[in-house]
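Data deposition worksheet. Section B asks for the primary sequence of the deposited chain exactly as it was used as input, without tags or linkers unless they were present during the calculation. Section C holds the resulting structure in token form. Section D is free text for depositor observations; keep each observation to a single sentence. Incomplete worksheets are returned to the depositor.
Section A, Depositor: J.P.
Section B:
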Amino acid sequence: MVFSSLVFLYAFLPLALLTYYLTPKRFRNLVLLVFSLLFYGWGEPKYVLLMLASFTAAYLCGFPIVKYRLENPRRARFWTILSVSVSLSLLFFFKYYDFAAATLSRLPFWNIPLLGLRLPIGISFYTFQILSYTIDLYRGNAELQKNYATFGTYVSLFPQLIAGPIVRYREIAAELQERSETISDFAAGVERFCIGLSKKVLLGDPLASGYLYFRQSLALSPSALAAWGQALFYAFHLYFDFSGYSDMAIGLGRMFGFHFPENFRYPFLATSISDFWKRWHITLSSWFREYVYIPLGGNRKGIWVQLRNLAVVWLLTGLWHGANWNFLLWGIYFLILLLIEHFLLGKVLEKLPGLFRRFLTFFAVVLGFLLFSEANLAVVWQTAGNLFGANCPLGDALDLYHWKVYLPLLFLAGLCATPIPKRLFAALLQRRKRAAYLRPVFCLLALLLSTAFLVSQSYSPFEYFQF
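Section C:
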């Protein structure tokens, strides 16, 4: 089940909200757990057991970790390693086994059979949430959760279960124990959800259509215009698809009394690659920083250790997104850009005008997403060459026609990727005496338009489900 489906919007969500608010507070976590398991099991019934096994192991290991943390650190470390190993083993087996087997089978005398297992949706996200709980327990940064249903709710909470944002346990531990659901929070959640739904359905899906058209055009008749159409439409599609999902997740959380961390802050306005990664998929970047980069020594032990740590983080970041060489190279690509920016050209870039720095950053990011969008590295290389006119013409009359057709959508996407619409709406609210009515009207229009678009199309998947 996905948020951008009529079943979710008009059946599952109303039923979940109604049941939740009619249930006494002490049982509301249990209600969320049941609905979260139903939500996950809608499309992945057999993998519900996998998720249950994963968070049950972490729940049980939490008790000896806390018991021995102070009196016997070695035993605490053993249970921590055991819990982390179980979670990572399940992640590796289902996500990376075939990739590792295929890679090793290229070596002489190796012939490891492939299993062809289907990737459990959201396993990367909920595994990282489980790891954050276990590691924080060991560090003493989180309290033990003794209630199984409450811990299960944290891991399986359906608003952010399958595509984030990645929520660390300590960020919502207090709200898991006791939260107050208010009308203002609920209204803010509805508004945020409608914004996210609009971004996904009204912008993300049409941008995907543009991307697919230019991709097919590039395959049939390579040209620079088709290559740029593919690259730009994919970058904006990915942004509105993923940020729209994050907005919906944050909005749903508010409806149920939770406050999830932000995951995007206008990343296409970044003035550097490091700035981009402070704005794009923020919860993933902060997770790797806290649980990998800093424990390895960060930048505190000299430049060579720092370089090693950065390499580890970006190799893991690439692999986290997918078990394929294109994702690994995508991580290496951003690692190289960050090293160049930090150690070679940082001071030079700082002297450039802000607009030019934004253009350079956006250009580098769009190039990087070519690796993200295509597993065939030969095709990636060819497309990168087509961008600059290598072995292809600028374009033909058909390319120009479709650019004219799709250009308004691209312009609208570029505008909505900035704070300008939000500021214009805020200014309108200040000037109107009856501004309070504009918010519910806006939400209703967004919902109705999105519904109309969903009725006209059969399926509206999220890009990040594959990760």
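Section D:
The chain has a mean pLDDT of 90.
The chain is about 70% helix and 0% strand.
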